[in-house]
């Protein structure tokens, strides 16, 4: 998938799953703050990425994903 | 000194309605909550009959991240508990300043467990189960969710006793309050209504196959019964000491007079007569009342050949020549299993409050085993002050409650 396709798909999936308006999912927005994630819900995000993109995010890589842009980039680089 | 134990709040989420008023009317009118499910038939069920339990929409009350921790049965229990707390006038400020306990019956989490493990097996990643999966897939999911949502800081316990779970939760609450260990306990029972929760049960060929007449399928005590119909939902009761209720100015709906219990210690699925009979006898012993004080028996009778017959004989053994009115509300609701003991206590209290006995739906003729009890086929306007409610489960777990009007 291209980066644009990944962005669109990630945003659509997250907006539905986390019940947030897609307009809030801006590249520079903070993922945890926007989705109000605690340690449990963070696993939901990891699960979503795993299930929909077949990309595993190891726990040591989670700090690298601060903004939505980081998430798109991570999937782009690690997709099969 | 033993304390009196009363019920001050009730809440219900069932195929007969999602408010006490709707359920009262459905009971009186003899309305059935049973349907044929094309989804179950397509999936391969031998019997695609089930109760039509409305989905609960918690979005107006809880955010996504909170709901993510709650399987279907916990959602039903949340809705029922909101109603019960409201009726009991037990608001959050009071709960936050006092120790309120929680004992709830639940004995499966099939769909939540299956969904999480399917994802694990598909992906090979445990994280794919999701952050809420562990909390959704434990038997205690209802109590862990309700305790956190309503800030309940007293006893926090799940009663897993098969189809006696809901009744045992009320009995345990009665015992703790009676002995002064708790003042107030939220109790009840919840049952998931999805098809995965009963697929293996269907495999035992225990369900009615009267698919051409769903509302005639569940027929407790009837000669032509051919199996049960699975149901679901949740029922919550607020139980407290009489003094505590009076001090709070709570509406006192009924009094729990006593609880009895027993184990069959016998076959895992085939019931006997002596186990249930001992449960009734212990309940009378603990209650200090006699069979003649009972105006109505809400039977466990699920519409199975063996179960209904043996319960009838146990009731007859204990009540003797006194032909107490008996019905099973499962003719209308199907078998609400883990929820049944709690929901049937509520159904019976609604009848007691409104001076009627809901007829045992689809009871047309007794057989040689059920003819010994006085099954009431049609709704009857009648007054009674005290009833007995039976709940029996797989593994031979038996629970009996006696509940009555409150004498000031």
Description:
The complex is a heterodimer of chains A (80) and B (408). Chain A contains four helices and no strands. Chain A has 80 residues and is mainly alpha-helical. Chain A has a single domain, classed as Orthogonal Bundle (Non-ribosomal Peptide Synthetase Peptidyl Carrier Protein, Chain A). Chain B is an alpha/beta fold and 408 residues long. Chain B has one domain (5-404): 3-Layer(aba) Sandwich (Peroxisomal Thiolase, Chain A, domain 1). Helices cover 35% and strands 19% of the residues of chain B. Chain B contains 15 helices and 15 strands. Chain B has helices at 20-29, 38-43, 64-67, 72-87, 92-97, 110-123, 133-136, 141-150, 165-178, 199-203, 242-248, 274-287, 305-319, 330-333, 340-354, and strands at 5-13, 34-36, 49-51, 101-105, 156-159, 184-191, 233-241, 254-263, 296-298, 325-327, 356-357, 374-375, 380-381, 386-393, 397-404. In chain B, the strands form three sheets. Chain B has an eleven-stranded mixed β-sheet with strand order 5-4-6-7-1-8-15-14-9-10-12, sandwiched between helices. A two-stranded antiparallel ribbon of chain B has the order 2-3. The longest helix of chain B is centred in the first third of the chain and has 16 residues, at 72-87. The two termini of chain B are 18 Å apart.
- Coarse morphology of chain B: globular
Please give the CATH class of chain B: Alpha Beta
Mean pLDDT of chain A: 95
Approximate helicity band of chain B: 25-40%
User: What count of domains describes the coordinates of chain A?
Assistant: 1
Order of helices and strands of chain A: HHHH
Q: State the CATH topology of chain B.
A: Peroxisomal Thiolase, Chain A, domain 1
Radius of gyration of chain B, whole Å: 20 Å
Number of strands of chain A: 0
Using the coordinates shown, work out and report the CATH topology of chain A: Non-ribosomal Peptide Synthetase Peptidyl Carrier Protein, Chain A
Strand order of the largest sheet of chain B: 5-4-6-7-1-8-15-14-9-10-12
Largest interface, chains and sizes: A-B, 19 and 16 residues
* Class inferred from helices and paired strands of chain B: alpha/beta
**pLDDT average of chain B, as an integer?**
97
Computed structural class of chain A: mainly alpha
Number of strands of chain B: 15
Helix segment count of chain A?
4
What is the count of structural domains of chain B?
Answer: 1
CATH superfamily of chain A: ACP-like
């Amino acid at each position: 998938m291209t980066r644009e396709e990944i962005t669109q798909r990630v945003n659509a999936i997250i907006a539905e799953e986390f019940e947030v308006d897609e307009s809030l999912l801006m590249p520079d927005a903070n993922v945890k703050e926007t989705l109000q994630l605690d340690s449990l819900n963070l696993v939901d995000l990891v699960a979503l990425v795993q299930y929909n993109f077949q990309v595993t995010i190891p726990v040591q890589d989670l700090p690298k994903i601060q903004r939505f842009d980081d998430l798109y980039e991570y999937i782009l680089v690690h997709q099969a | 000194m033993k304390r009196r134990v009363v019920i001050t709040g009730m809440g219900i989420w069932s195929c007969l309605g999602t408010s006490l008023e709707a359920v009262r009317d459905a009971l009186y009118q003899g309305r059935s909550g049973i349907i044929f499910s094309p989804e179950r038939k397509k999936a391969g069920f031998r019997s695609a009959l089930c109760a039509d339990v409305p989905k609960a929409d918690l979005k107006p009350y809880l955010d996504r991240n909170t709901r993510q921790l709650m399987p279907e049965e916990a959602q039903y229990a949340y809705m029922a508990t909101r109603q019960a707390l409201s009726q009991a006038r037990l608001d959050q400020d009071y709960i936050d300043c006092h120790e309120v306990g929680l004992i709830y019956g639940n004995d499966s989490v099939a769909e939540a467990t299956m969904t999480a493990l399917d994802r694990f097996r598909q992906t090979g990643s445990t994280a794919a189960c999701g952050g809420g999966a562990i909390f959704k897939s434990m038997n205690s999911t209802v109590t862990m969710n309700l305790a956190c949502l309503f800030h309940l800081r007293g006893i926090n316990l799940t009663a897993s006793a098969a189809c006696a779970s809901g009744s045992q939760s009320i009995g345990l609450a009665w015992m703790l309050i009676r002995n002064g260990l708790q003042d107030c306990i939220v109790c009840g029972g919840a049952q998931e209504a999805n098809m995965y929760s009963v697929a293996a049960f269907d495999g035992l060929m225990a369900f009615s196959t009267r698919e051409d007449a769903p509302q005639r399928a569940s027929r407790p005590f009837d000669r032509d019964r051919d199996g049960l119909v699975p149901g679901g939902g949740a029922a919550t009761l607020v139980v407290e000491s009489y003094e505590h209720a009076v001090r709070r100015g709570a509406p006192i709906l009924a009094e729990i007079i006593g609880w009895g219990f027993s184990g069959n210690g016998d076959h895992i699925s085939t019931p006997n007569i002596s186990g249930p009979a001992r449960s009734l006898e212990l309940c009378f012993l603990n209650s200090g009342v006699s069979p003649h004080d009972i105006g109505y028996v809400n039977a466990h009778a699920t519409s199975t050949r063996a179960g209904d017959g043996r319960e009838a004989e146990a009731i007859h053994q204990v009540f003797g020549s006194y032909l107490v009115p008996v019905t099973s509300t499962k003719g209308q609701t199907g078998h609400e299993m883990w929820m049944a003991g709690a929901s049937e206590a509520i159904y019976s209290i609604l009848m007691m409050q409104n001076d009627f006995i809901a007829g045992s739906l689809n009871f047309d003729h007794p057989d040689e085993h059920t003819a010994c009890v006085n099954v009431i086929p049609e709704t009857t306007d009648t007054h009674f002050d005290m009833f007995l409610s039976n709940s029996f489960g797989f593994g031979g777990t038996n629970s009996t409650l006696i509940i009555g009007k409150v004498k000031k």
